[in-house]
Amino acid sequence: MNNFWTRELDVVVIGAGQAGLSAAYHLRRSGLSPDLDFVVLDHASGPGGAWQYRWPSLTYGKVHGMHALPGMELTGADPDRPSSEVISAYFDAYEQRFDLRVHRPVDVGAVREGDGGRLRVETSEGVYAARALINATGTWDRPFWPRYPGQETFRGRQLHTVDYPGPAEFAGLRVIVVGGGASGTQHLMELAGVAQETFWVTRRPPVFREGPFGEEQGRAAVALVEERVRRGLPPQSVVSVTGLPLNDAVRRARDQGILDRLPMFDRITEDGVAWDDGRTVEADVILWATGFRAAVDHLAPLRLREPGGGIRVENTRAVRDARVHLVGYGPSASTIGANRAGRAATRSVTRLLAGVPA
Predict the structure, then answer these.
(1) d(CA 57, CA 197)
(2) Regarding predicted confidence, which is higher, 85 or 233?
(3) Nearest to 199 by CA among 211, 182, 187
(4) What DSSP letter does each residue of 179-238 carry, written as one string?
(5) Which tens digits make up the pLDDT trace of 245-304?
(6) What is the rounded CA–CA span in Å between residue 317 and residue 341?
(7) SS3 assignment, position 282
């Protein structure tokens, strides 16, 4: 890590996905200048946040609920173009339009207590001494891999959604998809057309949501996630409390038996998986669509975690350190939630910089 210089400024934003760009936009609107009063650091080599890593067959038309960034709509996008290309180009144009001057690729190794009440942000390009921090690192860098007995003996291929290349590589293979979220159902519907056989395994029976999902339902779902964060528990995804949307494609998949679910297996064997009741399934591939965890390990020196394992947050502010704000965390992990969190964090940060009590 290059620590040859230390630079003082007001705010460091870590991450340039939806939440980070929203925060940077609102910081600029509040009168702060990029590269003078605040800096945006992103570890990726190009714009697009986690979207740039999505599999090619996830076209823009298949994306659920992509909300525009503040101040600039995404218009005229080709629904058949990969979402990774559409949204990366949109984020790139957004950064240029508002002159956000994102630094990349920059890795943040640690954030710790610094001198004079500032936070010491240690990065691959140097050290920033900041009066406040907006953390927008999301979850893509921390895929969750469950552990099951015999996992190391499986002779086939195991991969996570984070490494899913699209359906073509699985032609003629028997594939077990593990996970009851949106990614799991998307994988199954794609693979059904090319794989020899697919099996869907989840810990709990999936819940499909029928009918409209309006503002009132959205607020209720976010409130459930927010309550966990307020109690200092690790956040759950908003999808975990909203259920899976039941659209025409999902209905067809259910009618065709593609989404017939099996309960979670008890162990993994050399050739597949097994249950204690004697059932077995042979497979060539286990695809873990088991979600992600918040990428906040760099904040560990600040000791923000509660005994329950999460970081307790009120609005966007970490309860244990008023200088630290988390956006795109817990209830603000959705695209519209990330936009709102960026605005809320900026309001709180500007009050902090002005010496106004929280």
Answers:
(1) 19
(2) 85
(3) 187
(4) --SHHHHHHHHHHTTTSSEEEEEESS---EEPS---HHHHHHHHHHHHHHHHTTPPPPPT
(5) 788 888 999 999 999 999 999 999 999 999 999 999 999 999 999 999 999 999 999 999
(6) 10
(7) strand
